[in-house]
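I am writing to request your help with a piece of structural work I have in hand. What I wish to show you is a protein chain and, alongside it, a tokenised description of its three-dimensional fold. Could you please explain, in whatever detail you think fit, how the structure tokens follow from the sequence? You will find the record immediately after this paragraph.
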Amino acid sequence: MMSFSYRRSAGFTLIEFAVAITIVGLLAVSLVLFIPKIKSLPAFSQHSGNPLDQAAKAIEGFVIANSRLPCPDTSANNTGVEDCTDGAITGWLPIRTLGISLGEPIRYGAYRQAMASTANDYDLAVLKDRFIPLLPSSYAAAYGIKKNGLDFCIGLLNLTEKGGSVLTAGDMIPIAYGIASAGVANADQLDNGVYSKFDGLNVVANRFEVTAKPKTNLYDDDTKTVGSAEFFERLGCTQKLAAVNSVGRAAYVAYDVDQVAAFYVKFRTFQVRVSELDNSMVGTARDLAIADLAISIAGMGVAVAGMFESPGPAGAFGIATAGAAIAMAGYSMSEAIKEVPKAAADLQTARQQKTASDNFKVQTGIDLSTAITTINTLDGKGIRP
């Protein structure tokens, strides 16, 4: 019996090669699709990207949570903890306070300038009650203190309006805060103490270079400086302050209407009292008219009896006089009786108008209370989302 044998040739067959190419293609597609997602995970993203962008986001988050800028870390060994005790303006970024981790030390500065008037203050690393909503005077005096992001917004607004030289960038431009990272090489080759690796204005006390300054053979730092107006808009201060103050204006209107309603209630109360008095006087007039008629009739009887005793012109005159008195008393009684239902109707109308004014006052009081409650809610929320 014949047997056939063959020896397997070395290398890949076309089918094996095609399978290998397919697998490599799938791996390539997987890498393209999933590497960005892997980098977005916290464990990776914490240490990726521009450190200044990370620092800026952390600072903004700190402001939203604490309604102030973090103080610089002024420790000699860069502990990462803010130090607010000495009023320092520049130092290191307090990364431990911010809860972030960066691969390099970041120089940091916050604008700090205290003013005697709290409303005009712009020490941005200290939370102060700078903002009081627009309120009627009687409510403003009793308004509770609320220290939050709106007070920080007023600090930014004060810095924008007044300017200052406490913390500046470039050509003495006031900034809310600044951060800088040193270049890989000490481009200017100068020894500036703790800031030996930094260049240009980034080594000058309370100063920074402007954002994205071009790099040269003497400058290779990265800097980000944020002005007060820019930060004001970024935090949404315009919209949030406008929302509170618009409700404040509504509260003024509600207060004025409520005051009118209070006067209206007093007027209607007085009207009811007048109507009650008028109703009482009409009743009294009717009773008096009835009494006068009775007296006149009695007088007629006396005049008739007198005429029998002394007939003549005198007796006739007495009867005529008594008759005239009866007619007048009858007319007065008739008119008095007519006034009784009118006075009663007027009193009922006055009481109905008084009830309407009371209801109106209740509604204006609710409107005013709602406006004040809304102001408290919005002001208490501050700049939080």
